[in-house]
Design goal:
0% of the residues are buried. By secondary structure, the chain is mainly α. The N and C termini lie far apart (133 Å). It has one helix and no strands.
Length: 86
């Protein structure tokens, strides 16, 4: 009588471990999908806010209100000088 093992008696622990590992990775990746979508939306909002500020609008995109304290800068006037004729 030999002590050879039949195919049904093989150790299935590595196969179970890999199945559990694959299942865990799948569940984690599906859960983190919403996180990546949220990060993408945050970056999009950040880009739009920066673009709005560059165009002189508020962060949310509304036109900037002119306060009575904020006035358009006055243009500097250059005094006119005359050059004497020789």
């Amino acid at each position: 009588m030999t002590l050879e093992s039949s195919p049904a008696q093989h150790n299935t622990a590595p196969m179970k471990l890999s199945a559990i590992l694959l299942t865990s990775i799948t569940i984690c990746s599906l859960c983190s999908c919403n996180t990546f979508v949220g990060i993408g939306r945050d970056f999009k909002s950040l880009g739009q806010g920066v673009e709005n500020k560059a165009y002189g609008k508020t962060w949310k995109g509304q036109p900037r209100a002119q306060n009575s304290q904020q006035q358009a800068p006055q243009q500097a006037t250059v005094p006119q000088t005359t050059v004497p004729k020789p």
